[in-house]
Amino acid sequence: MTTAVWGAVAGAVLAFAALAFGFWGMVLVAALAAVGALVGAVLSGSVDLRAAVDAARGRRVG
Known about the structure:
It holds the Pfam family DUF2273. Helices cover 81% and strands 0% of the residues. By secondary structure, the chain is mainly α. It is elongated. It starts with a helix and ends in a 6-residue tail after the last helix. The model has no long low-confidence stretch (mean pLDDT 87).
C-alpha cells in the first residue's frame, strides 16, 4: 500500500474514534497507534532504539 492509502486509513480510523469516543478517545487511539508503530519499527529493525536514546541524551554514536 502507498503512503496515501495508509494516511487515508489512519484518518478514517481517527474519524471513527472521534465519533464513537469523543476527542480524548481519539487522542488515545492516536497515541496508542504511534506507540504501536514505534514498537513495530523497533522489532523490524528499521529503528535502532539504542542509537535514538543516545542521540536524545546528546551522545555521539560511532
